[in-house]
Amino acid sequence: MNDGYFKPHEPMTRGEMAIVLQKAFNLNGISNKSFNDVSAGHKAYEVIQALAKNKITNGYLDGIFKSGNILTRAHSTVFMARSMSNYFISGKASLHSKNVIVWSDYFGVYKTDVTTNETQTLACKKSPR
Q: pTM for the complete prediction?
């Protein structure tokens, strides 16, 4: 997904999941927490910081995030559960919102605001060449 395409048959990294969650739930902010492996110049720095600010992630005990590691089922479950919980994100649109639906099909991941009927593509499948 580094190139902006949704690749349904390829593994997803922790950094890529962070990007999807940040876009899907409009997460913003910079956390006081720093990750030793995610410097301010890292391509996903702001996205990972937004997840930390919104209590979606704490990283590992040794102070790293491991953005390039393949996402495990356990991590994806925790990320999604925290993203959908109002306890972790106050005032943010989540799947509990009556106005926002996050959905996917074979071609990508999307977010639709049902009040305006506007759909935003969060990630799309790469076209065959």
A: 0.65
